[in-house]
Amino acid sequence: MVVERGDPAAVGVAHRLTGWLRPATGYPLPVLASPGGEAPAGSLTLSLQLDETLGEEGYRLAVGPERVTLSAAQPAGLFYAAQTLRQLFPPAIERTSVQPGPWVLPVVAIMDRPRFAWRGFMLDVARHFFTPADVRRLIDYAALYKLNRFHLGLANDQGWRLEIRSWPRLAEYGGSTEIGGGPGGYYTQSEYAALAAYAAERFITLVPEIDAPGHTNAALASYAELNCSGEAPPLYTGIEVGFSSLCIHKEITYRFLSDVIGEVAALTPGPYIHIGGDEAHATPPDDYVYFMERAGAIIQAHGKRMVGWEEVARGRLEPGTLVQQWKSVPAGSAGIPDLQAAAQNARIIASPAWRAYLDMKYADDSPLGLQWAGLVEVRDAYDWDPLSEYPAMAEGDLAGVEACLWSETLRSLADAEFLAFPRLPGLAEIAWSPREGRSWGEYRLRLAAHAPRFNALGINYYRSPQVPWPAETLL
Ligand code: TNX
Asked: Where in the chain are all domains bearing CATH 3.30.379.10?
C-alpha cells in the first residue's frame, strides 16, 4: 500500500484500510510513502490531489488490472474510497481469521460524492447504558456506511451518562440505574474523549446531547436545588416521557447548564451540542421559549452550534442552529415547526419517526421496539426521499438525514444491531446518494446480496420477509 507524498492524514486512512484487510487475507500489507511518480504494478495507492469536483467528501476509486488507486481532495474522501473498496472484496474479507480467498476485485472506475453534509446515526445511551466497546462497534457500523455524525443521547430521565466534574452526583448517582432498574453506568471524561477521538479517526463528528428542560429527571434526582420545590424526586426506571422539567426561573438552573455545557464543549472536538428540547410537557410554553433562548446563548458562548429537536424552533434561534425534525407531519398544517425553523433560516435534519426511527417495530410481532409512530418495515425506511416528505422545503434547507435508535427496549449490543439492521444501510444510502436512480425494487436485491457481509461481521439482523435473502444466509 503506497501513500503518495506520505500525507499524515492519508497515512492514517491507509492504516485503517490495512486494519480491515489484514485479518482475513493474512497479508502483511506494509504502508509505504512514495516519492511520487507512478506506483509499482500490484500496488494500491492512496493519493490526495486538488480536484474541485470532489468537494470535502468525494472520491475516485479505480481498480485496473495492474493497480488500485484511491484519490480524493480531502482525507475524508480517501476514507470513503477505502470503505467502498472494502465492500468490493468478497464478504469473507470481514472475517476476523485468515480465509482462503481468492481476493478478487471487479474492475471499476468510480466517482462518488455525497448528497447531504449531515449523515447521522443517533444512539440513546440514557434509557439503557451501552459500554464504550459497544459504542465503538456502532461507530464502526456508521463508518462502514459513510455516515459522518454520531449523535449520543447522554442525559435523559432514566440516566446521566457523562462525568461532570463540577456536578459529580449527575453521573455517580444520576447514572446509577436505567430502564428496568439495572445498574446503568456512565462514561468518565477520558472515556468520552476517547470515543470522540475514535469517531474522528473515522471522519465522524460526535454530537453530544444533553436533553433539557424536560427529560431531566436524572439531574433533578441528583441535585435537590435544581427542583422548584427544592426536593429531589427519586430515580426513574420506567418508560414514560414528559413529566420532568428543570426549574426555569431559578438562576441556579443556568449556572448548572453553563457548567455542564462548558465541560461537554471542552471535551467535544466537533462544533455541535444538541440540547434536546423535545417533549417538555412539564414546562409551561412561555417558560420553554425563555429557557431555550438562554440555552442557545450559553451554547454559543461556549463556542458551539446548537442542535435541537424541532420544538426548539418555537423560540428565537441563534444563527447557525440546526433543527432536527422528528414528528411534525408536513401537509401545511398551521405553524408546523419545520416552517418556523425555515423562516429563521435554520437548516433541518430530517428524522421523520415513521421512516428514520430505528426503534420502531418492523412488524406487529417484532420482539423489540416501540410502535407509537407505526411499524417501520425495511421498505418504509428506504422508500422515501427527504424532500418529498417536506414539500415546502428546498434542497438547501436540508442539512441531511439522521437515523435514530432510542433504547427503551434495548438491553444489549445484539438488540441494537437487530433494530439497526438492515434499516440503517438504507437510511445511509438516502443520505448519500442522489434521489434519481434509487428504487426499492433494485435496492432490495442489493440489500439481499449484502447479507453474507452482515453474517461475516457477526451482525444480528432482522430477516425481513420483504428482502430475498440468499438461502445460505437464512441457516
Ligand atoms: C420520542 S423522539 C422521544 C424519545 C423517545 C422516543 C421513542 C424524541 C425527540 N423524543 O424521548 O425515546 O420517542 O421512540
From this structure: 2-112
Closest residue by CA, ligand 1 atom 8: 278
Could you read off the pLDDT of 419-470 as tens digits, one per residue? 999 999 999 999 999 999 999 999 999 999 999 999 999 999 999 999 999 9
279 is known as an active-site residue: yes
Query: Which residues have C-beta atoms less than 6 Å from ligand 1?
Result: 241, 278-279, 309, 326, 357, 359, 370, 406, 408
How far, in Å, from the CA of 355 to the mean position of ligand 1?
A: 14
Q: Domain 118-471: give its CATH code.
A: 3.20.20.80
The residue behind cell 467535544 is 268
Class of domain 2-112: alpha beta
Annotated catalytic residue: which of 279, 310, 389, 429? 279
pLDDT per position as a tens digit, 154-178? 999 999 999 999 999 999 999 999 9
Give the integer Cα–Cα distance in Å for 263 and 228: 24
Which residues of the chain does CATH 3.20.20.80 include?
118-471
| Predicted structure pTM score | 0.97
Which residue in 58, 84, 60 sits closest to 70, CA to CA? Answer: 60
Query: Whole-angstrom Cα distance, residue 203 to residue 75?
Result: 9
